[in-house]
């Protein structure tokens, strides 16, 4: 009998393939503007927040900020703060972020057809 605190058994497809590891990735990338942000940041070495906003004019400042925080927590984006006046913060994809972007490219190409 399963313990009430133990996680449920993974749900698998009929062929036995378990897609559970994708849950976190799908949850992160399915949020509003997530894939666009990965593409925008990945197309540049690094970007400041205002530059990201300029590329993604349909998104609110709070949505962009929230996605960037989520990406940083997930290890997809690095945030570098420079001790300057005025303060400067730049965002760049990490190695994992670049891998996600590379894997999204075929999907984006397919979607544009």
TrEMBL record:
Transmembrane segments: none annotated. The keyword DNA-binding applies. Pfam families: HxlR. Residues 20-113 form the HTH hxlR-type domain. PROSITE patterns: HTH_HXLR. It comes from the Archaea. One of its GO terms (molecular function) is DNA binding. Keywords: DNA-binding, Transcription, Transcription regulation. The keyword DNA-binding applies. This is Winged helix-turn-helix transcriptional regulator. It comes from Haloferax chudinovii.
């Amino acid at each position: 009998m399963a313990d009430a605190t133990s996680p449920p058994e993974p749900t698998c497809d009929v062929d036995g393939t378990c897609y559970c590891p994708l849950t976190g990735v799908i949850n992160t990338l399915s949020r509003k503007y997530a894939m666009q942000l990965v593409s925008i940041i990945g197309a540049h070495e690094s970007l400041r927040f205002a530059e990201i906003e300029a590329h993604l004019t349909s998104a609110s400042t709070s949505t962009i900020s929230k996605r960037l925080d989520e990406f940083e927590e997930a290890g997809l984006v690095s945030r570098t703060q420079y001790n300057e006046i005025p303060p400067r913060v730049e965002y760049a994809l990490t190695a994992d972020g670049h891998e996600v972007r590379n894997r999204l490219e075929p999907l984006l190409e397919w979607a544009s057809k």
